[in-house]
Automatic annotation (TrEMBL):
It holds the Pfam family ADH_N. It comes from Lachancea thermotolerans (strain ATCC 56472 / CBS 6340 / NRRL Y-8284) (Yeast). SMART domains: PKS_ER. Keywords: NADP, Oxidoreductase. This is Probable quinone oxidoreductase. CDD domains: QOR2. GO terms for cellular component: cytosol. GO terms for molecular function: mRNA 3'-UTR AU-rich region binding; NADPH binding; quinone reductase (NADPH) activity; zinc ion binding. Residues 40-353 form the Enoyl reductase (ER) domain. InterPro entries: ADH-like_C, ADH-like_N, ER, GroES-like_sf, NAD(P)-bd_dom_sf, QOR-like, Quin_OxRdtase/zeta-crystal_CS.
Length: 358
């Protein structure tokens, strides 16, 4: 019957567009979002209920977000460590449903369920290019599965890419891993164990270390009471580690360098304790050390790279070969509480936001 609404038959393409319009939910002009209008402490975080919904271009889709993952990187933008144009909506990963698409979009349709990496995800709506880091997920995905997709993209993909490319981990390697019970740390533990490495996990409490062990760590160091360097040298018989994955930054940089063996690799990728100060390049000379400051986006810059890594990640999640510990989910309006918990090192695993659909 739908083909005869005007009294004459419509072309198939017109039918498709009409059905799509019937399915579309009206897009509001404003939305709820968490953002900053200035840099500073937790007090600059704003939850606004009348922030403009982004307008999409011909090659873009608009996603109504259901879940967004919380990452330490949000604090870097809030503090001004990473620059941003204000006002700036926080967030780097999410999952949800496509609610509108540009005229030139061919890869996505309205009502597709998707997971994606992008800025501005702490909001009810986010726009992204169809050529960007966004993928369809099964249409029958449950809310819990959508939460899992949104909670795995930044940290699990970082871990997967870094053990493949930042330092290609080999069987038998000794690897030093900081923040071993956080969202990224638990993923690192699993990928390092799968590669056959001996993971030396560092965390601030015995409880966190036991969790790291459950996820694959072999050796445990409590940074609150142990001498990290002394323990690393003891574990490695004075040789040091092949590589260190250090997300802490300023406070651990020197220790990580000293813990490396000759021709070792330091992968510094976070600023949890503050940015690493400028270093003289000749500090790398005595042991022929390699120093990297990589980002995930440098490894998924092309469509082929994104497809390769994201499809492998989703396969691992579907099969149960990769476990993501989601320790707590907050409503969007309580992000400031989640940020305080994360930055005070009181959390393990992954923190999430559930975004209001109203």
């Amino acid at each position: 019957m739908i083909a005869r609404l005007t009294g004459s038959y419509l072309p198939t393409r017109s039918i498709s567009r009409l059905v799509e319009k019937v399915k579309m939910t009206p897009i509001p002009a404003v939305q709820k979002a968490v953002l900053i209008r200035e840099t500073g402490g937790l007090d600059v975080l704003r939850y606004e209920q009348d922030f403009p919904v982004p307008k999409i271009g011909n090659n873009e889709i608009l996603i109504k977000n259901k879940y967004a993952g919380i990452n330490y990187i949000e604090s870097y933008f809030r503090k001004g460590i990473y620059p941003s144009k204000k006002p700036y909506v926080l967030g780097r990963e999410a999952s949800g449903v496509v609610v509108a698409k540009g005229d030139a979009v061919t890869k996505f349709d309205v009502n597709d369920k998707v997971a994606y990496l992008s800025s501005n995800t702490f909001a009810q709506y986010t726009k992204i290019s169809e050529a960007g880091t966004v993928s369809k997920v099964p249409q029958d995905s449950t809310d819990e599965q959508l939460k899992l997709y949104a909670g795995s993209l930044v940290q699990a993909l970082t871990s997967l890419a870094f053990v493949r490319e930042a330092y290609p981990v080999k069987k038998g390697d000794y690897i030093l891993l900081y923040a071993a019970a956080g969202g990224a740390g638990l993923a690192f533990n699993q990928f390092l164990k799968k590669a056959g490495a001996h993971t030396i996990a560092v965390a601030s409490t015995d409880e966190k270390l036991q969790l790291a062990k459950e996820y694959g760590a072999e050796f445990l160091i409590n940074s609150s009471k142990d001498d990290v360097l002394a323990r690393v040298l003891e574990i490695t018989n004075g040789q040091g580690v092949e590589a260190a994955f250090d997300s802490v930054g300023k406070d651990t940089f020197e220790t990580s360098l000293k813990a490396l063996k000759r021709k070792g690799t330091l992968v510094s990728f976070g600023n949890a304790s503050g940015p690493v100060p400028p270093v003289a390049i000749n500090i790398l000379t005595p042991k022929n050390i390699k120093l990297l400051r990589p980002s995930l986006f440098g490894y998924i810059a092309t469509h082929e790279e994104w497809e390769s890594y994201s499809s492998e990640l989703f396969d691992l999640l579907h099969s149960g070969a990769l476990k993501i510990l989601i320790s707590k989910t907050y409503p969007l309006e309580e992000y400031n509480q989640a940020a305080e918990q994360l930055e005070s090192r009181k959390t393990v695993g992954k923190l999430m936001l559930e975004i209001s659909q109203d």
